[in-house]
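Protocol step 4 of 5: obtain the predicted structure for the target chain.
Materials: sequence only (see below). No template structures provided, no constraints applied. The aim of this step is simply to have a reference model before the mutagenesis design in step 5. Sequence pasted as it appears in the construct record:
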Amino acid sequence: MAVQKKKAPAKKAKAKPAKAKTVAKKAAPKKAAPKKAVAKRVAPKKVVAKKTAAKKTVAKKAPARAAAKGRKAVAKKAAPKRLTARKAAPKRAAAAKPARQAKHEGTTTHRVALASRLLVRSLSARLNPKGIGYGQFPVLQHLWEEDGLTQKELSNRVRIEAPTMVRTLDRMEREDLVTRIRSETDRRQIHIRLTTKGKGLKSGLASMSGKVDTLALKGISVKDRAQLDLLMGRVIKNLEADTS
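Step 4 output (structure tokens):
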């Protein structure tokens, strides 16, 4: 009986380590569990990282959008300046025109031609209400001085070509200002004579020509007028000698 009692404690001593193993096994999962929980807690950091990345992209886009808006605003503000420049352009062109015109008018040819056109305009404005064209007036002037001139003589004195003189006389004949009379000595020549209506226009139309001369020579002295007549006579002579 004494031997059996000594052996019993030995069995109990062996069983103790087994319990320690089971406790170790159970304790092991407990240590691993916090790792998973930590992993789960770490996972939101990725989400936070994504959010921060999104914020960075938004932050990158925000300055670009702001810059684009700023450019549009600047463009809108600058647009009126362009319109102002366009509006100012006609003013510059208008200011430049007189300078170009003055430079072009500096030539003698242009000045004489311009003076001639302006004289024609002033005289025509006075003749048209009377039913007389500007081309008819010099014919009437020469016939008032010497009635019965031939067509060729009129062409030479008025200094226009024969076909043009024929058309002018045709119109004057229709308007009962002149008549054509064939020469008795030379059937090839036709004399032009004034009608009663044509002779009656002399007093009224001659004064109109004098008014235009007075207007054109306003502010020019008598001495300068004589010099002008002399110079214009030379110009006419030089141009008549031109055969080119």
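Step 4 remarks: Residues 1-8, 10-16, 18-25 have pLDDT under 50 and may be disordered. Residues 84 and 180 are 67 Å apart (CA to CA).
Proceed to step 5.
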